[in-house]
From TrEMBL:
This is Lytic murein transglycosylase. Keywords: Signal. Residues 334-388 form the Peptidoglycan binding-like domain. InterPro entries: Lysozyme-like_dom_sf, MltB-like, MltB_2, Peptidoglycan-bd-like, PGBD-like_sf, PGBDSf, SLT_2. Residues 26-314 form the Transglycosylase SLT domain. It comes from Sulfitobacter sediminilitoris. Pfam families: PG_binding_1 (PF01471), SLT_2 (PF13406). It comes from the Bacteria.
């Protein structure tokens, strides 16, 4: 299966070394990386061996700029990625690796549905892990002027893995953004969270399902996953609900939401937790309540559409019903979305770039303009909003 979405872009820690100049000649840039690796304690001969033959990969840059699937609204995106076959295979894998998932739940507190959903979306349960040379991809993206601070530390982490015998710059392959293995982890995360779950003395995320799943569970725990707590529930809202209270910016207790008329659609809500009400396609579309664990998803992938879909799929794999799609108002196509972003930017809003993708910054800008114009403040951009601007 061809991968349909942006590979996971994790929250990365950076050090002062990431301030080293980027761009310019690719060969000069590689020499700078080599020097930095040596300065960090890597043996010169190891650094030279790693970077020998590393080349710039234009196909990586093309993939980085080709993100049209994120212009799909949640309902369409979810229907595209979630099929009966994927659900059935997910449940079969849950049974097949039951003892592994038991270990993950006991050790890291991450429910099996959560990891099954990532496993499905990232590599279709390991069947398509990407065929980009990982070293080339990471160095290419580190050299690229758009996000060097994200990828330079990952190159240096890959050198560390190479020194440990866990990475071959000539043969290691994965996603275009440098992730490796069944659940697509970046080198720094492999160093920090890789687990030898099958006991063979190696962390093999490409070929060992136990290693891959246990490492993914450990990484989620490291990112702040709270054991034994839910992440997402579908809800119904009263017709007179105050739509301006929706969105990740508003957090209330379950008791407070219940008093405002929020009701579960699949079972009881979890008391004692703070949560936000989310409308991925406006006040006429599906509605969800998101608990603290939902926010951890954004450290795995920064796309709101991906996060909503992965979190929802995890609930389906654990028995939730198909969401009620409702009758959402028509959204905007990619070209219209770029026009709206341009107009919002002209009004002083930070929309995160003119890319046609409905990200968190754009949702906040839409909500601000909806409030100003007297429209339902639900964060969903419509042709009506575009025409009024």
């Amino acid at each position: 299966m061809k991968k349909l979405f942006l590979p996971a872009v994790l929250a990365l820690s950076t050090s002062a070394s990431t301030a080293v100049a980027f761009g310019g000649s690719f060969a000069t840039f590689v020499e700078g990386l080599k020097s930095e690796a040596v300065a960090n304690g890597i043996a010169p001969e190891v650094a030279s061996a790693f970077f020998a033959g590393v080349r710039q990969d234009q196909s990586v840059l093309k993939a980085d700029r080709r993100q049209g699937v994120f212009q799909l609204p949640f309902v369409h995106f979810a229907r595209r990625l979630i099929s009966n076959d994927r659900i059935n295979r997910g449940r079969a894998n849950a049974e097949k690796y039951d003892t592994v998932f038991d270990r993950i739940e006991q050790s890291y507190g991450v429910d099996r549905g959560v990891l099954l959903a990532f496993w499905a979306f990232e590599t279709d349960y390991g069947t398509y892990q990407g065929d980009f040379n990982t070293a080339n991809a990471l160095v290419t993206l580190a050299h690229d002027c758009r996000r060097p601070e994200l990828f330079r530390p990952q190159v240096l982490a890959a050198v560390e893995l190479f020194e440990k015998g866990q990475f071959d710059p000539r043969t290691t392959t994965g996603a275009w953004a440098g992730e490796i293995g069944m659940v697509q982890m970046l080198p720094r995360d492999i160093l920090e969270n890789g687990v030898d779950a099958d006991g063979d003395g190696k962390v093999s995320l490409k070929t060992s399902t136990p290693d891959a799943l246990m490492s993914g569970g450990k990484m989620l725990q490291d990112l702040g996953w709270r054991a034994g707590e839910p992440w997402l529930d579908e809800v119904t809202l009263p017709a007179d609900f105050d739509w301006s209270l929706t969105g990740l910016e508003t957090i209330k207790t379950i008791a407070e939401w219940r008093a405002l008329g929020v009701k579960p659609r699949n079972g009881p809500l979890t008391d004692g937790l703070a949560a936000s009400v989310l409308l991925p396609q406006g006040h006429k579309g599906p509605a969800f309540i998101a608990y603290p664990n939902f926010r951890v998803y954004f450290d795995w992938n920064q796309s709101f559409t991906y996060v909503m879909t992965a979190a929802y799929f995890a609930t389906r794999l654990q028995g939730a019903k198909v969401f009620d799609a409702g009758t959402p108002e028509p959204g905007l196509d990619g070209g219209q979305m770029k026009v709206l972003q341009t107009r919002l930017q002209a009004r002083g809003h930070d929309v995160g770039g003119i890319d046609g993708i409905l990200g968190a910054g754009m949702r906040a800008a839409v909500r601000a303009e909806q409030a100003r114009l007297g429209l339902p403040v639900d964060g969903w951009p419509t042709p009506t909003l575009l025409s009024l601007l």
